[in-house]
Design a protein that fits this description.
The chain is mostly helical. It has 3 helices and no strands. The protein is elongated and about 50 Å long.
Length: 102
């Protein structure tokens, strides 16, 4: 792999990775705040709204995949990956937030 391809890959994947790390951190902070202050209804609502917002971002990214209509396999693969990342990010954020509040 050439140095130029490595830089292009890093420039492409870094913002995506930061998005998922930030999303997990937001879940953790919201959960920590809600558990520590016994505001579970607010926590559940905020986590749900954040999950739906991230899901909409994933939907836009999947629909914007290159040649989305002519390359249905790529679009489906991106949708599955985004769904798995959404679930893992939510679960990790909830566990981290609960653990930090305990």
């Amino acid at each position: 792999m050439s140095n130029m391809n490595r830089r292009a890959g890093l420039a492409y994947h870094t913002p995506t990775g930061l998005f998922w790390v930030a999303l997990t951190g937001l879940y953790a902070v919201i959960t920590w705040w809600g558990v520590a202050r016994a505001h579970m209804a607010v926590t559940a609502t905020a986590d749900t709204v954040l999950f739906i917002g991230a899901g909409l971002c994933c939907f836009v990214a999947v629909m914007d995949a290159e040649d989305a209509w002519s390359n249905f396999r790529r679009q489906k693969r991106l949708a599955v990956i985004c769904g798995m990342l959404l679930g893992v990010s939510l679960a990790a954020g909830l566990v981290l937030g609960w653990w930090a509040a305990a």
